[in-house]
Model the fold of this input.
Amino acid sequence: MSTNLHKLLNRKSQAKALAVIAAFLLLSGCATTTNVQQIDKLESIGEDPRIVLMPPDIRYYLLTASGIPEANAEWTEAAKTNFSKALLDYADTIGADVRTISADNMSPDEIQYETLHSAVGLTLLTHHFGYTKLPSKAGRFDWSLGPGVSAIARNHAADYALFVYYRDYQASGGRIAFAVLAAAAGVGVSTGSEHGFASLVDLKTGDIVWFNVVTAGKGELRNADDAAKTVDALFKDIPTASGTPEAE
Done:
């Protein structure tokens, strides 16, 4: 595959994902969280539940004047660093043993499951939280990464895996100027968004037992303090070793 064709296909996939999120934002409104919880308490065959944190799938983009997202490696790296530190600080409140997997040490299967999680999460936004419900689900939250994910449990002696997906689209000066002109003509144009979701996966079954969505207005991950606020919002009501407040 040529480099130019690969870039074109990659941009098309980014645009498709952005369209899915944009549709969800229209349905849910701005600055909101949406939580689905299948269990009330973390369980383990050992002394303490162990959660393995997969490398967060966080990416920052610059929106060009035409609305094409261009990846920004510097912004992305800063966001990942702040987010990961904030999440490890937050882990103390879960009452579980949280271990991280380095992106450099992931097995091919683990990389595939990270990709699968992102795809399943985007499908959830459309077909569980959105208007286009799947008749076969009958409204049930019945989503899974499949039993093969148990390989992660064997590799890391873990009970659960925590997956994170987060995207931030920052408008360029050209995009803002275009939005101003469009507004004058009565047309609304996006000047960026921030959104993400997280899943807690039971590694015995592959089932998603907790899922939370956070949309615009929760914080700027490139800033350490705001990253902590985003983590608080994204992991609101995640099950703990002692049980959630609602279950106590």
Q: What stands out?
A: The chain has a mean pLDDT of 79. The chain has one domain: 3-234.
